[in-house]
Amino acid sequence: MKAKLLVAAVLALAVLLAPMSCTPTQQGAWIGGATGATAGAILSHHHRSRGALIGGVAGGIIGAMIGHTYEYYKFCPACGRRFHASKLYCPYDGAPLQMVQ
After folding, report:
1. Nearest CA to 100 among 79, 71, 66, 68?
2. pLDDT in tens, 13-64
3. Nearest residue to 1 (alpha-carbon basis) of 41, 59, 35
4. How far apart, in whole angstroms, are the C-alpha atoms of residue 14 and residue 62?
5. How many Cβ atoms from other residues are within 10 Å of residue 15's Cβ?
6. Any idea where the domains of the chain sit in the sequence?
7. Residues 41, 3 contacting (CB under 8 angstroms)
8. CB neighbour list of residue 98: distance below 8 Å, 6 or more residues apart
């Protein structure tokens, strides 16, 4: 019964806090953590609390990594599109990208 309450609390917290997160990395961490905690509690029949904890940590790390790939740090001054920090030039018009401030 305690494990069900823990899972419900983690999911409720993630649902409330994920939209308030500032960056895609933070949102991915919240959503991944909640999903991992739920899956860990469901799949771990004998140790639900431990499964929820391990699943939540793993899900949070993976979710943050996925969310980070959606972060945009540069933009094209010519067309206004945004790009990941690894890009140097706009693939659409060749203009040098500038950092988002």
Report:
1. 71
2. 766 766 666 677 788 888 888 888 888 878 877 787 888 888 888 888 888 8
3. 41
4. 15
5. 12
6. 2-68, 72-101
7. yes
8. 74, 75, 76, 77
Question: 77-97 pLDDT, tens per residue?
Answer: 999 988 877 788 999 999 999
**Which two structure tokens, joined as six digits, stand for 3?**
């494990």
Sheet containing strand 82-83, edge to edge, reads: 82-83, 74-75, 98-99
The single residue listed with the structure tokens 């469901």 is 42
Q: What is the DSSP letter of 18?
A: G
Cα separation, 42 vs 64, in Å, equals: 22
- Asked if 71 and 23 touch (Cβ cutoff 8 Å), the reply is yes
| Gyration radius of the chain's alpha carbons | 18
Paired with 75 in beta bridges are 82, 98
DSSP SS3 for 83? strand
Place of tokens 């950092």: 99
Tokens for 92, please give them: 């659409």
C-beta neighbour count of 37 within 10 angstroms: 27
